[in-house]
Amino acid sequence: MSTPSPDDSLRPTAKRLMSYVAPHRGGLFLTLVAYIGAACTEPMIPQLLGYALGEGFTQYTHKSSQLTPGLPAEAPFSLWMVPLVLIGLFAMRGLFGFLGQYLLHRTITRTVMDIRAALLQSLLRADARVYSSLQPATAVTKVVNDPQHVITLLGGSVITILRDGLPALAMLGYLFWLNWQLTLLSMVTVPVMATVMRLVNKRVRRMGTWAYDANLRLVSVVEDVTRAWRVVRSFDAADHERQRFADQSREVQRSALKTSAANALAQPLSQLVASVGISLIVALALLQARHNQAGVGEFAAFVAALLLMTSRLRHLTDVAQPITNALVVARGCLELMDLPREPDHGHTELSQFSGRIELDQVVLRYPGATRPALDGLSLLIEPGRTTALVGSSGAGKSSVVNLLLGFERQDAGRVLLDGVPLEDLTKANLRRQFAVVSQDIVLFDASVADNIAYAQLRDDARLEQVLRAAALWDFVQTLPQGLDTPVGANGSKLSGGQRQRLAIARALYKDAPVWIFDEATSALDTESERAVQQALEQWQGHKTLLVIAHRLSTIRRADRILVLNQGQVAESGTHEELLAAGGSYAGMVGQSH
Ligand code: ADP
Known about the structure:
This protein is α/β, with parallel strands linked by helices. The chain has helices at residues 6-21, 25-56, 81-125, 136-178, 180-227, 229-234, 238-290, 296-317, 320-334, 397-404, 427-432, 448-452, 460-469, 473-478, 496-510, 526-539, 575-581, 584-592; strands at residues 357-364, 374-381, 386-390, 412-417, 420-421, 434-438, 514-518, 544-548, 560-565, 568-573.
């Protein structure tokens, strides 16, 4: 088996990018037309200047004066024509140039928008497991910054190709017309130059990949430090983090230096190759002169034109690097599109879910785990009752919730909602059946109302109703903008208890058949605990409640308590029954006092 070269590995990326540019090809075509227009005006400028100089500086008689023998009878053009034609020509060139740039940027911005939309779409559809390995900051970089970076780099290269490539092409035609042997000889240097450039580019690409990865790792260190600042402080880990940052910084610096060294090598190398070509050309020209095939004037014209063309071509050699760099970055961010998608193959919809959930011999094994998280778990959640799941950390409580919400899939056994297998339901319908109040409260940087009626139509009467039920209405009334007051990033302007109540109000607003109180992360402040306690007392007996509890105080009144151990139900019954049985639950209660 042959290993693919870096060129091959970037080709699919290029193809993929092109599929996003393709819908805007009309704009690209117009860009091309505009730049061809601009290129056409270019040779006209020296041409006109030459004409003006050639004809305009000859001695001539004035129309009204007497004819002088030996001088032309009349000026070939009026003086006012000179500024008019020159200004007109530059205006035309300017207009074409402007149109070219404008049209190209229009295409660029639209393409960036499309790519970002596609990337966000794949994030929204990605399988839940993806999120355990995807850092938010990385996702932000890949969705927001990278597409802009990629397209800007590519756009810059396209402009160079159009602005310098087209005139260079015209000059090449002129060179062949002037002296084809010399032109052919100068072309020999091209493949040699190309080979050298390919080698350099390969290194640039390798360094580029390294630099890109190093940058991402640096980003995630900063992200960790800000996101997990409590942990960092409480472990007194500032030195550890500083060291981690310093190591990554050094890596970024080294990779950046090596990338620019590889970049900087490109020009001197290509100039060296070009100098070999030029010496050959001079030698051949001298040989032609000795055989009287070419004059000094022609050689001067040839060299001048060749120099003009190389100055254009020099810009073109700088084109390959940004393209390669852009493709490396693009490969990184387009990878997001290959994230495994959340399977959604169900076709059934429950319209009136009673709340009856049955787990039958369910086995759930996480990838790489040595033992299953749920190990033949069977349990029943009855409509209108309160069921509590307790058990030590790692017993499988959160796994049950993840399974019910369709974030994980069981490897064996069945999960039935009103007798319908969970995987037969569409994901949208499944998730409509549950409202989750988690201690891991996630609020959006939006108003109180938008946080509660999240992704639903806003109904102020209903908002008041749920806010009253969550005992938050009085507080909201004191806010400067009432329901429209922003809560800050992740509710930073609210206290722990208020955030908890807001989360409860959101769940109420959703009005799902089953409520899940996920207390798995424990560590509740008393205010939040009271909020949860009140909500539970209020809804117990009216709703189907599933409570995942660490604090036994919240579940004492549950209709049924299931004690999980190693992914199985170890004991079940009411608080009193379990206490009387004197098993592990009784032990836990004893410990908590
Ligand atoms: P609990 O909520 O009772 O603390 P979990 O359901 O979170 O327990 O975890 C049950 C078991 O599954 C634990 O052994 C845990 O380490 C494992 N586990 C949970 N989530 C994952 C995951 N994403 N990948 C691998 N193992 C996991």
